[in-house]
Amino acid sequence: MASEHTALIAPLTSAGRADEVSLRIAEAIKLGLLVDGERLPPESEFAQQFGVSPVTLREAIATLRERGLVETRRGRTGGTFVIRQSDPDEAPDMARLMRTSATALRDLADEHCAVAGFAARLAAERATASGLRRIQSLVEQLSRATRRGEYIKADSRFHIEVAIATRSERLTHREVALQTETAGMLWGSYLRDTQIEVVHQEHLAIAEAIAKQDAHAANSVAEQHVRNNLQRLIAGRLALRKADGATS
User: Fold this and answer.
1) pLDDT tens per residue, range 149-181
2) Which tens digits make up the pLDDT trace of 22-66?
3) How much is the pTM?
């Protein structure tokens, strides 16, 4: 059986290649869906989850080993284990943000508003006591974060836990996919400490609305949070392009 964490990784939507599988697993590690030291599922089971052959999965795992994101141990207690970096390199994410147009960022935010807003609404109606505790603990985790990897993990896991609280597998997978696209671009060095505190306060407002079972307020503050993230992304893109000397 897949672990609770690996089950959150959606299968590929098209014929899978090894580089697509390795990218999906690498993003799951960065978001904290796969935690440091976690053992990956058996090869045949993990390949089936992605909808790829065991050979393709082995190629993907080899790539991840080369990048230092997993290690394979031999013996009875062996297997492939996650090595999560506490401070992942921001360069690939910032390059992606610079390449993404403002129109594309707005389109992404439109989808995220729909998913995150409705997820918060349903979470206010359906969240269990244990689900609320996980959501609130991630608000606190973001306030204690000091490194880029910690910010990404606390932020993305917060939104994913809100989606999990809806008990909707489809919503949860959409939130995971959206976090994969946005979290790395959001948490760049262009983000100031005052902006980070604002993000924390926005998470707190969402968690409080869910705890009060105020579905309308939860929907509203979650949608506004996504709109605010859009403005942060656009401002970050402009700052990066200006520093790079880009004019378009």
Assistant:
1) 999 999 999 999 999 999 999 999 899 989 999
2) 888 888 888 888 888 999 998 899 998 888 899 999 999 999 999
3) 0.84
DSSP-assigned states of every residue in the chain: ---TTGGGSPPPSSS--HHHHHHHHHHHHHHTSS-TTPBPPPHHHHHHHHT--HHHHHHHHHHHHHTTSEEEE-STT-EEEE---SS--SHHHHHHHHHS-HHHHHHHHHHHHHHHHHHHHHHHHH--HHHHHHHHHHHHHHHH--SHHHHHHHHHHHHHHHHHHTT-HHHHHHHHHHHHHHHHHHSSTTS-HHHHHHHHHHHHHHHHHHHTT-HHHHHHHHHHHHHHHHHHHHHHHHHHHHHHT---
